[in-house]
Amino acid sequence: MADQLTPFLRQILRITTTDNRIFLGTLAGTDQPLNLVLVNAEEFRMVPVYPNSAPDRMQTIHEEGESQTDRAGRVAHETEMRLENVDGRFVGQILVPWKMIAKVEASIAGQYGSDEDYS
């Protein structure tokens, strides 16, 4: 598996973690369990943006027969994410544990000099 990452060495990666953080940095290497090492990395945090429903509206819906589990599922489904710190926070070198990685993306030069996302 580490051999498949070799073409991405010294390439800029965007790693999304399971705790809603995004790391943008240059892949410097991996270790045996496939933790990824990024250098010159920045961290961006994603925070939930709740729908325009006031707590009293949610209470009304709950009183009308919607169970608490159904309400929690609906709110989670309606929740969107946005960047908390648009400018990012420089973290330098970081090791991202493979268990926390939700998605890895790389921008590679495509045909005619355009960039394509690779996931």
Please supply descriptive tags for the structure shown above.
single chain; 119 residues; 7-stranded antiparallel beta sheet; 3 helices; elongated; alpha+beta
Please render the helix and strand layout as text.
Layout: H1 2-5, E1 12-17, E2 21-30, E3 36-49, H2 55-63, H3 68-78, E4 80-83, E5 89-96, E6 101-109, E7 115-118
Antiparallel strand pairs: 1-2, 1-6, 2-3, 3-4, 3-5, 6-7
Describe this structure in words.
By secondary structure, the protein is an alpha+beta fold. It contains 3 helices and 7 strands; from the N terminus they run αβββααββββ. The protein has helices spanning 2-5, 55-63, 68-78; strands at 12-17, 21-30, 36-49, 80-83, 89-96, 101-109, 115-118. Strands 1, 2, 3, 4, 5, 6 and 7 form a 7-stranded antiparallel beta sheet that branches. β6 (101-109) and β7 form a beta hairpin. The longest helix has 11 residues, at 68-78. Residues 54-63 have low confidence and may be disordered.
Summarize the entry for a quick read.
This protein has 119 residues and is an alpha+beta fold.
Note the gap between the termini: 15 Å
Pattern of helices and strands = HEEEHHEEEE
Total of DSSP H or I helical runs spanning 4+ residues: 3
Oligomer: single chain
What is the alpha-carbon Rg in Å? 19 Å
Molecular shape:
elongated
The poorly predicted ranges are: 54-63
Strand content: over 45%
The whole-number mean of residue pLDDT values reads 76
The helix fraction, in percent, is 10-25%
Query: Structural class of the secondary elements?
Result: alpha+beta
How many strand elements? Answer: 7
How would you sum up the major sheet?
7 strands, antiparallel
